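From the shared-data thread, chain only:
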Amino acid sequence: MQSEMAQFDPDNIYSSVPKEHVRENKDDDKYKIQVFLEEHPGEWFTSKQIAEETGYRVGQSQTSVRKAITILLELDNIPIISSSYGYKYATNEQEIDEYCIALQHRVSGIVRRIKALRSIRMDVKQ
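Structure, as tokens:
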């Protein structure tokens, strides 16, 4: 496990996104998500609702929807934010700023857990 952590590259943000989603493709279904959210500014939608409205496969977790949204945000600079309500197209700077603050709180919590686990890992019996 330590070797996995040592190989972690924080700049490789697409490591969990399948390569077929990253390729440049004008007909990519991800743009259906963009259009759908742009047509409903300020409205929250779950990944299941987005899948149903855009023709994505509806499953237990809608992984393909989440990965497409990641690509839209990180590669195409589409302002999609999320919360416990789902996803929405951000319509102003305040929404983006509040979302960034929420993300930073999540990061801080994860860092605390990593530190705690690293400090106790030697106590774990193998």
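Confidence is low (pLDDT under 50) at residues 1-8, 21-27.
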